[in-house]
Amino acid sequence: MSKTNSLTTNIKFIIEGEEEVGSPNLATFVKSHKDLLKADVILISDTAMISLDNPSMDVGVRGLSYIEVEVTGPNRDLHSGVYGGAVANPITILAKMIASLHDENNHITIPGFYDDVVEATAAERKLMAEAPFDLEEFKKDLGVREVWGEKGYTSNERTGIRPTLELNGIWGGYTGEGAKTVLPSKAFAKISCRLVPDQDSHIITDLLINHLKKIAPPYIDIKAALHHGGEPYMTPIDSKGYLAAAKAIETTFGKKPIPVRGGGSIPICSLFEKELGVKIIFMGFGLDSDNLHSPNEKFDIANYYKGIETIPYFHKYFSEG
Fold first, then answer.
1. Residue 274: its pLDDT value, please?
2. DSSP secondary structure string for all residues of 214-234
3. In the chain, how many domains are there?
4. Do 188 and 99 share a domain, yes or no?
5. How far apart are CA 195 and CA 263, in angstroms?
């Protein structure tokens, strides 16, 4: 577009490589370069759509609180025959503590966890239900016999409008080849919470860490610390930027995009709006089936070309709006 002099807007790019660790240095840069980054709208394409046949646009992403926990029992690894049954096993204790964080309805049990959650309206839940979703195909694709989640909500709602608590990793003791009958000294876990409006990541992190310390039995020591976090973000569907993006997608796909809530987190969004005073528009072309955070993560060529075709229309319609 620059070669043909057909670009209808001025564009500034921000490219940084720390998103997966919470973008710890971006805030300082943004705060120090507000004039350089001054803009009318921010376009982010780090999102997905339902499919090329059913285009959608994220109207929000969830926030994040990510912590690591260390539980210590005895001062060294012990022989599980000599000491087993007489000394608390840190792996067992940590597993019990983690299991207690959900009740029989898969509701998170941390006191105060849901206090600031903005409940989705009946109209919003009805709109979400209109998005194409095949539960049997969903289960088949993931290789699971049944879905799991908070009682009273659909799978789409559980990954969009509800907060979650997930165990991302757990380890301890002997995990090498063969057998070694130890009662380990330590056990570790990584735990993440996805947050929805109006939850605050700092509040949730404090609630989670303090709760773990409170329920820790006296025969173990516990340490817990934050890795990184970020705030949830919503964008209005009546804004100039959203309407331009929706019109662009309709132009190239032949269908109006379905507004959906994204399940992932993009911590920089709330930072950008707070410091620069502009709204974020999510215009992504990936798919949930792209194996995100898994081996063989991909991005289909067809989606790549569709993005190239569509985004110029966003600039055209935004400049005309």
1. 92
2. HH--TTSEEEEEEEEEE--EE
3. 2
4. yes
5. 9
